[in-house]
TrEMBL record:
Basic and acidic residues: compositionally biased ranges: 501-512
Name of protein: Zgc:158263
Organism the protein comes from: Mastacembelus armatus
GO biological process entries: ceramide metabolic process
SMART domains per the UniProt record, alphabetical: DAGKc
Molecular function GO labels: ceramide kinase activity
Pfam families listed in its UniProt record: CERK_C, DAGK_cat, PH_CERK
GO cellular component: membrane
Highest taxon of the lineage: Eukaryota
PANTHER family: CERAMIDE KINASE, SPHINGOSINE KINASE
Amino acid sequence: METDLRLESSLWIGNRRYRAVLTGWYFNWTEVDKKNRDKKTIAVPVAEVVGVEEGRVEILLQKLVEDTDKDFTVFYVKRSNSGGSSGLLWRLGRTQFSCPSRVLRDQWTKHLRTALKTHGPLRPHRLLVFINPFGGKRKARKIFHSVVAPLFELAGISSHVIVTERANQARDHLLKKDLTDFDGVVCVGGDGMFSEVLHGLIGRTQQEAGLCENDPTVTLHPCPLHIGIIPAGSTDCVCYATVGVIDPVTSALHIIIGDSQPLDVCSVHHASSLVSYSVSLLGYGFYGDVLAESEKHRWMGPLRYEYSGTMVYLSNRSYAGIVQYLPADPLLSSPRDKTRCLSGCSVCSRSTDRLFSHSSDSGSLYSSQFSQFSSDSEGDWVSVEGRFKCVSLTCMSSSCPRSPLGLSPSAHLADGTGDLILVWDTHPLGFLKFLYRHTSTQDQFDLPFVEVHRVKAVRFSAPSGKEEEGYEEIGGLSGGIDEEERGYDETESSSGSQQHLTERVRGREMTNEPKTPSPFLCGLCCSKTPAASVWNCDGEILPFTEILCRIHGQLVRLYARGIEDGAAVHSSEESDKSERTCILHK
Ligand SMILES: Nc1ncnc2c1ncn2[C@@H]1O[C@H](COP(=O)(O)OP(=O)(O)OP(=O)(O)O)[C@@H](O)[C@H]1O
Ligand SMILES: CCCCCCCCCCCCC/C=C/[C@@H](O)[C@H](CO)NC(C)=O
Ligand SMILES: [Ca+2]
């Protein structure tokens, strides 16, 4: 097969002569000077070729073709600096080649197209696209039609486009309508739109497999359709954490070349029913309150989160809670190991082997994953209780433009675990330090009132009576507990100290002593605050406080490849200033 695809000849780009070679995996061209010396080589992986067209073709707002019978144009992925984001921006590279004859031109286009078929088994041909016209800055429709649709057309992808008219339309469509013709589903919007597609696809897959989503012990079936995200929301956390940049062109190119990134998903249950799925943030306390507050100010657009964050911070709340968690195997990875989950991550690859090695033998899969929830493994759960500023669970780093390394910088996209972050009640300035560290490279877990655990499951409940208790006075910025009162033991903070059936009580425990209000915050602090917060589940408020969460390893796949390490990509190649496609000097 590989040898059949090989083709080599002289080609011209403008008035310069090149030696072009198509091997199985690469298409490369090397300039040949008048003395027949080779100069630099541009090498494009066949997997990153977007399309091949006869003639001299340009894609501006629409396709312009100058149909000359000795020319062909190759479009491919070209990397460039992302200007501060953690990943690399992808752009559409284009090179027009001239051949000495039409026969040779036809040979080149035929060979290149065959190579694309061979090296792009997951490239989509037909996509179902949902556009939320009201997400983010309300630019989703324009983004899709002006930026994404021309690229899909170039790549020969046909799209069935639905502009949503109501919330949950995309989810309902995926649950009920015929999806047989589609290779994948694309959402143009933010995390809320992604969440709709996630719920629709997971639900549909389990329906068809005859599995009950309500049962947390069931091993759910992975979704067969890939999900693509064209970012057009307010936070776009899932896109940022899986691609490294918020850029519609980059995301469209990942979809076109059929990249495939598995993703862990957390199922959230209450009283024997599924409540929701989450990938980015399941947050109680601060993040729940920020979401509840921000929903009142949707008209502000993306700025609503900054405004609400400030208001909630100033109100200085903390909440009583009992948190139980099932630790993941500490030998595999740790949330404090300072590594980052990047494209090709070895921790995630090893998890793929572990999660799916028994897939043909459903019995052993059942025993390895289900036993964690049976009563005889109850002893493995760790239990803590006290007052928390926030309790957060994330299946991935949850990096976003506000927090470029994310809620848990060393979390993995597809390792079958989540990171549980417990922030105990503390002085407001301490909590501000914790929040502020999310915006820098400083370690937000290196604080005595913060701990982080890598987990497979979590249970949360408010101490009895709290959910119904109603309201308590809150105390503005001067509230909080000093460290002596809380009795911190710095050596036990963070993930290292996993204990067998541990019960710990910290913070102000179950007492709800009123805090002293700050005089300059009277307007805020003298209002009543609920004894319980709400759960923020990927941007949606959950109607229950008491929940059980379980992480399902690699339940869905995105058209993405994880964050590309710019340094690694560029150290293995030499680049001139304009081209970031693989350039090799001979
Ligand atoms: N036509 C529509 N009218 C009203 N709401 C919609 C419509 N289509 C989708 N929605 C809902 O809008 C919510 C928010 O959308 P989306 O996630 O796209 O933007 P966002 O909230 O601005 O961004 P982010 O979630 O990244 O913060 C989603 O939860 C979705 O269910
Ligand atoms: C003093 C500076 C304070 C800065 C605080 C920065 C903290 C930022 C952490 C953001 C994490 C976002 C995780 C993603 C959550 C999404 O699921 C959700 C829906 O889009 N977004 C929000 C904001 O809830
Ligand atoms: Ca994970």
